[in-house]
Amino acid sequence: MDEAKRRGDDSAGAPAERTARVRNPRGQGERLREEILRAAGGLLEQVGSEDALSLRAVAREVGIATPSIYRHFADKTELVWAVLAEHYERLAVLMAEADASAPADDPLERLRHQLRAYCRFAVANPAKYRLMCETWQTPVDEERLHGHPAGLLLRGLHEALTHCEEAGWRVRGTRAEAPYLLWCALHGRVALWQVMPRRKDTARLNRFVDELLGLLLER
Fold it and tell me: Basic and acidic residues compositional bias: what residue ranges (predicted)?
């Protein structure tokens, strides 16, 4: 199989693009990588799907030949995940800061702060949030899936629940599914909050977080 096709290069068989882009000076490869990420992120917001994302379009936005993308990303999936990773990492930082702002000896309150920070991020960054949670992505094998950037969020929720258990709280239901339950519940509530035609009162999201924790944890 042609190597370009194997990697998902939709320019295979097409003539190389001519471009007037000025090369970055030596040592500025990271700058080009960032430009590729910005272009891919903007296009993903428009097409909403990894399959629909055209690497030729990404290259055209940046002003490079399509094969140049592979100097920074092994395939289209790696590029899409790198775009998403920036936003998941930012969300993780905000949740960690919220955790640190709560009393250190109260893991439940720390988790509450984290979940509220998640809601604030989603409300303040609707385009980024849609990109993270609504981009259709190509299925990968289980081993590769472990490297998905969403794992950063799930591992953080798992750790926060573990701290609650160590403090004497019991997680209702299946422990392995609890981080997913938290995420799904938050995402669903935020999605409804965003689309329903009512006054946008973020206090409703805070109350939902309180209700969710009351349902999930008990002593």
Answer: 1-10
